[in-house]
């Protein structure tokens, strides 16, 4: 840091030393040198006088009306009520955590809701069937029939035609067809007996009614 | 640091140690000891007495709570004024859009008890300081008013010593060019160029 550039080297040194000389923070040798320089340099002497006046002005008490006793009383009152402030700060911190948690729960609830609506729209009809549910596709007198694997389609069709049977369901997972008789002259029991004695039919059982 | 500074700092450290264990009498002694210095320092930032008192109390509130963590890396006065500086800047940000002057009537009443000579000196200083930035005013106050070294000021303002030197230099140049004119003297244009 350089003082005004057109000052001489001694004046630059004097410029640096002045603030500290005013506070008696320079060595005796430095102080003596400054005193000597000031007697020879009118510009620095004028500057030093101004610096002295500046320091004097700055050490005047503040011109703003202040009351340290009142200030101290307020400070002590503030210290006496730290719990209220701490509670307030803790409440602010807790409030922030609570708000974050509530927001997280709301986001989760919203996500679950959206997911539920999506799954419901995709699977409006459940794929499962409970034992207590009534069989929706089993008309009265229906019979489960399992044809032999070796039975040809033409033989199966011929059997259905001869016995006046109509396939209303199947084949299911085990290869059983659900058939009903369209011949009202035959009882389901007679139809069942005939099927059981027919070659190529492995199984014929009436569809059980719901309990 | 001279002998008086060393003695004063030793007393301040002892008071801080007592404050650390909850001694309110020590707090009161330190508060009264620093009130004038801090008020004068803060008056370079704001003219509002309520803001000054608020900052002084914020400063001592922190000092009371942190007294036990003072490690003695600097003088106690440097530590306390550093806290006041930061609290002052914070208060300025909070009250930045409010008037910086107290009620004129209050000041006029106070000035009525001010000797003419002091009042003239204050006016001369106020006009000069008005030409400076807030940081330049504070550096001038810290060096000339409170007698801190450049190293102390750097700690207080949390900036490099070079920055403090620059602020002090520019403040002095501005005052050099302004104050003589305010005192009715011709301005030394020859020396006005840094």
Q: Could you characterize the architecture of this molecule?
A:
The complex is a heterodimer of chains A (211) and B (194). Chain A is α+β, with helices and mostly antiparallel strands and 211 residues long. Among the domains of chain A are: 9-58, no CATH class; 143-206, 2-Layer Sandwich (Alpha-Beta Plaits). Chain A is 56% helix and 10% strand. Chain A has a four-stranded antiparallel β-sheet, with helices on one face. The mean pLDDT of chain A is 82. With 194 residues, chain B is an all-alpha fold. Chain B is 71% helix and 0% strand. Chain B is built from nine helices and no strands. The radius of gyration of chain B is 18 Å and the shape is globular. Chains A and B meet through helix 1, helix 3 and helix 4 of A and helix 2, helix 3, helix 5, helix 6 and helix 7 of B.
Secondary-structure-based class of chain A equals alpha+beta
User: In sequence order, what are the helices and strands of chain A, one letter per element?
Assistant: HHHHHEHEEHE
Unreliable sequence segments of chain B: 103-112, 189-194
Strand content of chain B: under 5%
For the largest beta-sheet of chain B, the strand count, sense and barrel status come to:
none
For the terminal residues of chain B, how far apart are their CA atoms?
31 Å
CATH architecture tag of the largest domain in chain B: Orthogonal Bundle
Number of strands of chain B: 0
CATH topology of the largest domain in chain B: Rna Polymerase Sigma Factor, Chain: A
Q: What percentage of amino acids of chain A are in beta strands? A: 5-15%
In helices, the fraction of residues of chain A equals: 55-70%
Order of helices and strands of chain B: HHHHHHHHH
Oligomer: heterodimer
For the record, the count of structural domains of chain B works out to 2
Protein name (chain A): Zf-HC2 domain-containing protein
Organism (chain A): Dyella solisilvae
Domain RNA polymerase sigma-70 region (chain B): 30-96
Domain RNA polymerase sigma factor 70 region 4 type (chain B): 124-175
């Amino acid at each position: 840091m350089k003082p005004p550039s057109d000052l001489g080297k001694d004046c630059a040194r004097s410029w640096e030393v002045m603030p500290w000389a005013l506070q008696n923070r320079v060595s005796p040798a430095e102080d003596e040198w400054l005193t000597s320089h000031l007697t020879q340099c009118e510009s620095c002497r004028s500057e030093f006088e101004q610096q002295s006046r500046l320091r004097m002005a700055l050490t005047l008490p503040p011109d703003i009306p202040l009351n340290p006793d009142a200030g101290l009383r307020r400070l002590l009152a503030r210290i006496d009520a730290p719990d209220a402030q701490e509670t307030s700060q803790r409440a602010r911190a807790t409030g922030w955590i609570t708000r974050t948690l509530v927001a997280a729960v709301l986001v989760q609830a919203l996500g679950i809701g959206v997911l539920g609506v999506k799954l419901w729209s995709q699977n409006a009809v459940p794929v499962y069937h409970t034992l207590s549910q009534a069989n929706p596709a089993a008309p009265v007198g229906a019979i489960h029939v399992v044809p032999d694997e070796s039975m040809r389609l033409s033989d199966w069709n011929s059997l259905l035609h001869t016995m006046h049977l109509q396939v209303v369901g199947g084949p299911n997972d085990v290869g059983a067809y659900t058939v009903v008789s369209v011949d009202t002259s035959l009882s389901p029991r007679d139809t069942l007996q005939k099927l059981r004695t027919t070659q190529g039919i492995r199984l014929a059982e009436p569809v059980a009614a719901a309990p | 640091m001279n002998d008086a500074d060393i003695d004063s700092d030793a007393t301040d450290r002892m008071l801080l140690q007592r404050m650390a264990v909850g001694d309110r009498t020590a707090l009161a002694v330190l508060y009264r000891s620093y009130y004038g210095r801090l008020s004068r320092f803060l008056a370079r930032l704001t003219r509002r007495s309520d803001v000054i008192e608020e900052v002084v109390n914020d400063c001592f509130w922190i000092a009371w709570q942190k007294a036990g963590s003072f490690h003695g890396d600097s003088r106690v006065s440097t530590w306390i004024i550093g806290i006041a500086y930061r609290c002052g800047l914070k208060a300025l940000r909070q009250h930045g859009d409010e008037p910086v002057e107290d009620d004129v009537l209050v000041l006029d009443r106070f000035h009525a008890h001010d000797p003419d000579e002091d009042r003239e000196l204050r006016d001369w200083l106020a006009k000069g300081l008005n030409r400076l930035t807030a940081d330049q005013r504070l550096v001038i106050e810290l060096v000339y008013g409170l007698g801190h070294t450049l190293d102390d000021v750097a700690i207080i303002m949390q900036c490099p010593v070079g920055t403090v030197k620059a602020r002090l230099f520019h403040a002095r140049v501005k005052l050099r060019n302004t104050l003589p004119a305010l005192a009715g003297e011709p301005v030394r244009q020859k020396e006005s160029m840094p």
